Amino acid sequence: MEYQKLFIKINNGLQEFHDLGQVADYIPELGKVNPNKFGVHLTTVDKQHFGFGDANEKFSIQSISKVLALTLAYTLEDENLFKRVGVEPSGTPFNSLFQLEADNGIPRNPFINAGAIVISDVLVSHLKNPKEDFIQFVQQVAENSEISFCERIVASEKSCGFRNMALANLMKSFGNIKNDIDEVMDFYFNLCSIEMTCQELSKTFLFLANHGVCPFTNTIILTPSKTKRINSIMQSCGFYDEAGEFSFKVGLPGKSGVGGGIVAIHPEKYSIAVWSPKLNKKGNSNKGIEFLERFTSETKISIF
Amino acid sequence: MEYQKLFIKINNGLQEFHDLGQVADYIPELGKVNPNKFGVHLTTVDKQHFGFGDANEKFSIQSISKVLALTLAYTLEDENLFKRVGVEPSGTPFNSLFQLEADNGIPRNPFINAGAIVISDVLVSHLKNPKEDFIQFVQQVAENSEISFCERIVASEKSCGFRNMALANLMKSFGNIKNDIDEVMDFYFNLCSIEMTCQELSKTFLFLANHGVCPFTNTIILTPSKTKRINSIMQSCGFYDEAGEFSFKVGLPGKSGVGGGIVAIHPEKYSIAVWSPKLNKKGNSNKGIEFLERFTSETKISIF
Amino acid sequence: MEYQKLFIKINNGLQEFHDLGQVADYIPELGKVNPNKFGVHLTTVDKQHFGFGDANEKFSIQSISKVLALTLAYTLEDENLFKRVGVEPSGTPFNSLFQLEADNGIPRNPFINAGAIVISDVLVSHLKNPKEDFIQFVQQVAENSEISFCERIVASEKSCGFRNMALANLMKSFGNIKNDIDEVMDFYFNLCSIEMTCQELSKTFLFLANHGVCPFTNTIILTPSKTKRINSIMQSCGFYDEAGEFSFKVGLPGKSGVGGGIVAIHPEKYSIAVWSPKLNKKGNSNKGIEFLERFTSETKISIF
Amino acid sequence: MEYQKLFIKINNGLQEFHDLGQVADYIPELGKVNPNKFGVHLTTVDKQHFGFGDANEKFSIQSISKVLALTLAYTLEDENLFKRVGVEPSGTPFNSLFQLEADNGIPRNPFINAGAIVISDVLVSHLKNPKEDFIQFVQQVAENSEISFCERIVASEKSCGFRNMALANLMKSFGNIKNDIDEVMDFYFNLCSIEMTCQELSKTFLFLANHGVCPFTNTIILTPSKTKRINSIMQSCGFYDEAGEFSFKVGLPGKSGVGGGIVAIHPEKYSIAVWSPKLNKKGNSNKGIEFLERFTSETKISIF
């Protein structure tokens, strides 16, 4: 297969790539991962699969799951959702309190931590059993009932989640958190603990390349219009304060996580997931971005 | 023609659109324009033209010309250019000194004022007769030798350009302006004074929808890779701190100016220019954005 | 007595003073106070008393008690204390997260909320029964065993203390809170709930005008050097971002609270307490500052 | 004399003080000074003189002269002056654009660069021959017709004064500079170029310790009330973002300059000038502050 060969070619080229990134260690549990893991998986809208390396090994997808939380919240609240969270890039690190204070407790977008905490609050308001209902939604989109939260990661994040608690309290002081902080934060820390393989991740996100419909099950997850809008938010805000750089180099909407995962979408074509745990200074997978830049350069296609 | 009909349909729908925007008045000369002007022009990569309303009336394209300055500077300096200016959205208003100070005089992107001043400095360094050479470049891209600077606008901008002078001095203090400030700012104020009609604007920017080649003359303006990257910067940064919102609503890379103009690019399809002088609070054409949102909703195609 | 006559004279002059201030209402319980209360009490280092108006009515001294917390913490940690909290004015509102983030969790001074939370943490570390031990210390300085925390105020502050919780969590994320956040914040909210009359307040703070010694009991509270330094911190930082203005107008070191109280010190002469619940926009007693400005103008003496 | 002996004693103690400061080098001319110079001079309100070390050598007093500019502007505009400049400490470095932008072009106080530029603008508005008239005023206060601007320093400051030009342009954009920027900045750069010896400096500032009257000539420079207020501003704002620290350690109102000079006032007692060119990280004389801290500790008197 062409993609398969391309993965091998790019990987060969990356032998000489000196990865100066560092594995995330601010969450103790994440620091334990093998830094040399590397996996890629691409799934096309016509259901073809192309994997490479450690594509079938589970890793913590971390912030990538914020796209799924946004997806569910968007179906529940429609455009009202954006009264409580913006769609603008933040221009500052992902956990900045400064901007949140200046903006009166309205986070810039749903992918910075503050924004995902607001989305968590929305889901806690709507769902009967928030954590159970949400993981069922993810299992449905993933067409995989094994997807689950990771208790160890939850515990690890809680042990050092003081800055996230600060964000939640600040937003509560502005009235932008409606539920009990501890319940919202328990949901949030669980949200960030989901584990998937590259293959699962790529398949799960394929609906965003297919007008909101899972190609495997024909389930409608989102309307075409909302699908475009989530892709747009990923393009603008998916990589913290490196979103412009990713768009400049790779040219696809995508989302990263501090576990070293990245998922990117080529509308009407494919979804691709990469995993390499060492992060650059902006908190995005160093080798993952490099791989994707070479990939879209070689295929000579991007959304631009 | 289909686009022509669509323009009429959308325009009819906009009869009931209550435009709360305000004409830019911080530059005295801009305040004199008729606020009810409205023009649209779309040019396809296969050279078809579709105009509507005041599409053949000149207006001050203002910051839109920053894309052309970036285009020329990018061909002259290649990727080195991005050592002196970033590609990240700013997340703050277009003329903020705060961020520039925090970033040690490196502007976030080439479209905020500070970034365009750096680009002006680059062009002043490279060009023998900077203003003459640049306007010739624009005339070539536009395939129109009548395009010119507007002296009245230049004088008007200089009379109140203290904040831009502050930006230039701050960057000079960080060593990121190489030439004499007055020469650089004279170039910058001229750059912002260019006038075009919607038709001219749409035609001029068509190379960005066509892999860097002017379809009318087959002149290569940029490489395909650089073309994609400029489109990406427009997507991320083309609308000041409303870039995410434009991307969310319209889904195309584009660039606005405080004269009320917007140009947007659908790669491999068309370039579209809209003009409506009343601006929203973020400094972008209020009705222009509304029109484009309805246009991409109706055509059901965007890059996402 | 001269001071007594002066109080009457100034009060007469203030009949025409139109007090545009507002009673603090962000803490529900504080909003219930009678806004027209007005009391003054001055105690000299040679033990003379001069009262006026509602000088014997209890009110919530709020942040004024932070000086007492600092006093005790300073005796326990000496100059080491200032590794965890600065002595610089903040230049920003009293509960700003922005500056705290920029300063890596080290509060500018012990009188902004973040600084008083660090002082609370220090006391929680040192004291066996923090709340009991601290109120005993206050009772000793006040020579009054009736001084106590106010449960209603504590409950009221806790019900809306999300921003303070945000400050505490942010500092914990930087490692500048050592104890459990809930224990520290319980202490902090109690600290802010102490009630005194103007007479009690004036008498309690007299040691700061007397080289650290209570004139009534000859108890040494602080060394002369530390006493000067606390006076200096009050001068620089005692009135949030209005410290310069107070120093400019009144010329004495002092401390205010959102309950409308102010205490000011004239070293080697007297301690004066004023109470008027309506606050100006900076959160300091509006009429209280006016009274003190007229008082030091009339007496023609200040520390400058 | 007691002070003379004390200077010697403190100086002996400072033999073992390891001065880690650096001579200011951002103005080329300042970088040429001998870093080991050290002078002290104290003048009492009863006209006694006490000098030590290089007390009779000229140095660039730099920002210290801002107190004299404020003094003259205050007599010309009375309290109206404070509509255009505040009296609050800035909490940020002395040349910050960020705060100035947030405060709409109103500088926090007359001693940060932006504030002194506004004061310069006020003097340019009032004085017929601004530079000549101002230096005459300084000569009168100093009772010394030799005091003058230093052309070399002016030229040196202008060659690298881009940040100050940025401040002036930013304030002009907010309407807080009334005159031509180049004229105002020429005045400002001259203001900062004045040279004095420690003896001259100490004598010149003595009126601030003597209710506004020069003890030597009995000339009234300021009213007693305005004198107190200038002392208060020095206390709050005289040492950039180290004002609280100086007040904490030394306990006297004072003003520093990047030439390594410091002048401090003990109201009704004396004026003391110190000169040591090596600066700490906040831009204040490192050894100078240490000397003054030991001096007020030894004399056991400060305003607190």
Sum up the overall morphology of chain A in one term. globular
- Classified by CATH, the class of chain A is Alpha Beta
User: For the record, what is the CATH homologous superfamily label of chain A?
Assistant: DD-peptidase/beta-lactamase superfamily
Biggest interface, chains and residues, is:
A-B, 36 and 36 residues
| SS summary, helix count of chain A | 12
Oligomer: homotetramer
The computed structural class of chain A is alpha+beta
Percent of residues in beta strands of chain A: 5-15%
Instruction: Give the biggest sheet of chain A.
Output: 5 strands, antiparallel
CATH topology annotation of chain A: Beta-lactamase
CATH architecture of chain A: 3-Layer(aba) Sandwich
> What is the mean pLDDT of chain A?
94
Strand order, biggest sheet of chain A? 3-2-8-7-6
Tell me the count of domains of chain A. Answer: 1
- Write down the secondary-structure element order of chain A: HEEEEHHHHHHHEHHHEEEEH
**Straight-line distance between termini of chain A:** 25 Å
Low-pLDDT runs of 5+ residues of chain A are none
Residues in helix, % of chain A: 40-55%
- Rg of chain A computed from alpha carbons, rounded to a whole number of angstroms: 18 Å
> How many DSSP-defined strands of chain A?
9
